[in-house]
Amino acid sequence: MRTFRKTVTEPEELEEGHGWGAWLQGGINAVGRYLFLLVCAAASAWLVYKSYPGQSQHELAWFALAPFIWGVTKTKGFWSSFLYSWLTAFLFNAGIFYWIFYTCLHGGGLSKGLSLAAWLGLSGLMSVQFALFGGSCYFLRKTGGFFPLLAACGFVAWEWLHQTLAFYGLGFPWVMLGYTQWNAPEMLQLASFTGVYGISFLIVFVGASIGWAFATPGVKDGLWHMVYAAVLFLGVYAYGHYALPGSSQQLVNRQPLLSLNAALMQPNIDQYKKWSPEYETEILNTLNQMGHSLDGKGVRLMVWPESAVPGSLTEERYMELFKDIGGATGAYQFIGSNITEPDGKQYVGAYLLAPQAEGLLQSYRKIKLVPFGEYIPLESTVRSLFKDVEVLGELGSFTPGPRGQKPLDLGGVR
Fold first, then answer.
1. Which of 28, 203, 382, 397 is the most exposed place for a label (fewest CB within 10 A)?
2. Under a CB-based contact definition with an 8 Å cutoff, are residues 359 and 335 in contact?
3. Is the pLDDT of residue 359 over 60?
């Protein structure tokens, strides 16, 4: 293995002289190094992509950064590390954000070229954070055995900075590495102390330790890094396993302070169908059948997904549908929908409709909107550059809800 690492990734000292042999050897070494980095980037990108919701193979996340770290230890200079890291992130972001292309094409009415540009442009922009992390690794790798720990700290620092800038300015506060563990309850218990950042730290530390072990010349030193990672991983897993209830019976035996019989409704309707009028009848029939399937079941609250109906909830046919379901089941209807107010402003919100109600009981307007999906950042500039483009058709200019809104209240339950 050590011989392979040296042959493929470490530049050989060229023999003295300027013969064709030395030139050819240097070319072969350079090609081998670039191929090695490309393989590492592709391997990490595939593992990261498969780890995120949608693919949800959370166990792959623990190995995802190992090929990347192995490769970043062989780059030459900050910019080499930066570009290698950007390429890695671009590959997995393109896989994660593939839906942007279809959303812009079918929902926004954009051309294939503009939809492709939006998809790849967003993927490239989102990759800058990871590229900065990779560039930092060029300097951190000089710390030797402390590299995995410092790399994990550096990654979390960049992740926190990105999320902060995204929340208060432009950007998308998405794709945090800790999200990959959403379906691993034992690992999620760490978040009760550290938030999602602690889970991201642990994933990076484990992956960096494995990658650093392969890059370390000594087998013994490499094994010790794997041992450290295994001990930390197993410690967190053991705590999570202990913190979780041992059986469903334990959950049953716990006495709740308040009991509410609720139903989560998932019609599982393709989002793109909701933008095609030809599917409206099919969608409404699906919602109606699912809602009435709970007649007489004693459900107090029915929670529907965001954009459950193919239009605004205030349209009469949609309002009547949920009134009918609420009246038959005796359940409050909690629905996500966009609504246009009489003054022309559009809002994205959540609405609570009481059984037998004449109208909306309560509503909550979304405060933080999605750039280019729900609002256009720097709108005047964007529209001046793309005069004939309406971002997401009619749904590109929602108004943020006011701050200080009260939570929706259902008989004391908020």
1. 28
2. no
3. no
